[in-house]
Design goal:
Layout (H helix, E strand, L loop, with lengths): L2 H4 L13 H14 L8 E8 L5 E8 L5 E5 L13 H11 L2 E6 L10 H15 L1 H4 L6 E6 L1 H15 L8 E4 L10 H5 L8 H12 L22 E8 L3 H13 L4 E10 L9 H18 L2
Helix pairs in contact: 3-10, 4-6
Length: 298
């Protein structure tokens, strides 16, 4: 493991995925204690996207933005919100120069699949319809996210393709959770990895799916046809249960004729890029912004 990251492991908080309400409260308190991001080079506005039900979003508009990304936070589909994602969304906007539309989607287990996906799709449609107001080209709208948010971004891409929905020019999938079957080597063997392990992974899927079988829109790895999907940047962490399914999805996208950039980060664990002082985290975050900037440059 990267020595700069390893030094932080004893201080990582314990997240109890079996108690979603407590996990949310703990996550929100820690996020609130983090330094406020620098938003001086952008306009930040809370909006409501009309849907059933309405979806709260926070729009980050850098000056002279080129395109937009519908941004979906992580948290296993169980925790996270517009406030906890605020530092990340602001950082993505700053690094990429893109308008970031951060989505406050509904959470499990109170709102199981497909609630979060419906919210994300509603926001994508809204972004396309309001591109002129947002100051972006409707042909330059991407989807992206971390972890469970990356799952949603992949699922939005699949559903939009299948239903001839709004055009998506790019998908940015950071440490995506894509396969509920948990049969990959990393999903089976990473039982004691920092921050996120097999048990937490299983709990997240249980909360999101309940007793319903997974469809490809819940677990994109189950999709049999990956052709015609947007170009992708996929990043995985070495010590992450999701690692192998992210790599496998990247390979399958390539085999289906989709352009893919795949970056496997050695010495890292799931979510370790939140340790901003580490050199590898700085490189990871810069890469996410740079990949998005390249994709939206047209």
């Amino acid at each position: 493991m990267d020595p700069e990251l390893e030094a932080f492991i004893p201080f990582l908080p314990h997240m109890d995925m079996n108690d979603p309400v407590a996990a949310r409260k703990d996550f929100a308190e820690r996020a609130a204690a983090a330094p406020a991001p620098d938003t001086s080079r952008m306009d930040v506005e809370d909006r409501t996207v009309p849907a059933d039900p309405d979806v709260k979003v926070r729009v980050y508009r850098p000056h002279r933005a080129q395109g937009a990304v519908v941004w979906l936070h992580g948290g296993g589909g169980v925790f996270g919100d517009l406030d906890t994602e605020h530092p990340w969304a602001a950082r993505i906007a700053d690094l990429s120069g893109a308008v970031v539309i951060s989505v406050g989607y509904r959470l499990a287990p109170e709102h199981r699949f497909p609630a979060a996906l419906d919210d994300a799709c509603a926001v994508l449609a809204w972004a396309g319809e309001h591109a002129g107001e947002l100051g972006v080209d409707p042909a330059r709208i991407a989807v992206g996210g971390h972890s469970a948010g990356a799952n949603l971004a992949a699922a939005v891409s699949l559903r939009s393709r299948d239903e001839q929905g709004p055009a998506i020019c790019f998908q940015l999938l950071n440490q995506p959770g894509l396969d509920d079957r948990q049969e990959s080597w990393s999903a089976r063997n990473f039982t004691d990895t920092p921050w996120f392990d097999r048990d937490k992974l299983a709990a997240a899927w249980r909360h999101c799916l309940g007793s319903r079988p997974a469809t490809p829109y819940a677990a994109p790895a189950r999709a049999t046809d990956l052709s015609g999907l947007p170009p992708a940047y996929i990043a995985t962490a070495e010590f992450c249960p999701n690692r192998d399914e992210g790599i496998a999805y990247a390979l399958r996208l390539m085999q289906a004729g989709v352009s893919v950039e795949l970056h496997q980060w050695p010495g890292t664990f799931h979510g370790s890029q939140a340790i901003l002082s580490a050199d590898v985290s700085q490189r990871q975050n810069a890469e996410l912004g740079a990949a998005l900037r390249r994709a939206l440059a047209g």
